[in-house]
Structure prediction request, 264 residues.
Amino acid sequence: MPTLVLSPRFTDDSIALWRAALAAGWHTHRLTRLGDADALARPTDDLAVYGETLAADLVARAADLALLEPSHDWLPRLPEPHRRRDVALRSLADARALAGPVFVKPVDEKWFPARVYADPAAEIDPQIAGDLPVLVAEPVRFGLEVRAFVRAREVVALSAYVRDGRLARDEHGAWPLTADEEAAARACLARVLADPDIALPPALVIDVGDIVGRGWAVVEANPAWASGLCGADPRAVLPALRAACLPVSKVSPDLARWLRPRLA
Prediction:
């Protein structure tokens, strides 16, 4: 029986997944603090983790768990028709040398806000090391962004994410998406998932959005085990979490490219 391990942070998403796991007959374990991960017993059955990256990294180290995620260069390597803008993987030092405006985003932890910088050298904290990998992109405006949990190249859960620069959650806690918006998002995702030249890990989150004046494109890709649900059905997300978390012993050579580096 699978076991879902949750970080100590109680969020709406982690509670929703906990309830879905219990309903599905899974075992569940929530860490009371990050230090508890070191004492986590290595499971005899499948294990999946959900939470912020530090918690997931600690669980992975303690439980000999492999966390699968999109590579840092996944978006820059995506064919241009799927992203509809220039995107490159650079060092922060390189990004600081660029003339703005330019969109800059850390590839992993949120060392600084991901946004458009008019003057990257002046506006990004100078104390952050220059060798930090970042994504740099030409500024565009997404009118709507939609989040999709993907497993085995199939969309298993979908929800609105950001609308006009703000989280798409309404005053009732819902994440509304019209039928036309959902159809457009699914069509964009279908083009990506059907492209044989695009490599994908077994499970991930792909955000797609409508670029004003250009059309639908991929916004970014993130690990399933650390991405907010944004209203996606937690019951459908559970299999994606399971596919993105494997025992280290089961990581085949073709999966190694998606393996998140483990804590020392």
